[in-house]
Amino acid sequence: MLGKQVLILLVISLVLGVVTNFVSPNKIPFIGEYRDLSSGDGPIIPPTASEGDPPFIAIDVAELEFSLKSAVFVDARDYEEFICGTIPGSLNMPFEYLPEENIENYVDSVLEHASKDTPLIIFCSGEECDLSLHLARNLQDFGYTNLSIFFGGAREWENFELTLERGEQCGE
What we know:
Shape: elongated
Largest sheet: 4 strands, parallel
Structural class: alpha/beta
Number of domains: 2
CATH class of the largest domain: Alpha Beta
CATH topology of the largest domain: Oxidized Rhodanese, domain 1
Radius of gyration: 22 Å
Helix content: 25-40%
Number of strands: 4
Order of helices and strands: HHEHEHEHEH
């Protein structure tokens, strides 16, 4: 008898849930609409890449690392570009404005005193920007060992409809 009542309550709940979802303006699709995680093209590798450079990663790997919060993202662009759209939570280390003196102290400070084996993903605007490659090479020279370059950068991130963090001071 108790089992029959539980089954009836379960069926009624299921029907009410489906009907409510059907008429709701915020309905949840019965079949998920998920985009493919991979671009299918693999990582973007610039023609200036050379042997010994940190590895290049594709958008799907960058997104996975971002969602798992398993790496620190470092934006190599200048502050104005950074503030107008960057991967959320990224640190800004503008390669073109690195100080000539005490550069290692500056890097250590920007990276919030992260250890040399902290996973770092370096990026900039996208394919036309090689600041990420140059910054990664410099970080490698300073002894950072767990580097990756997301050469698709902020542009590819946005093209895949992933959220960019934008500051109020952006002069767009």
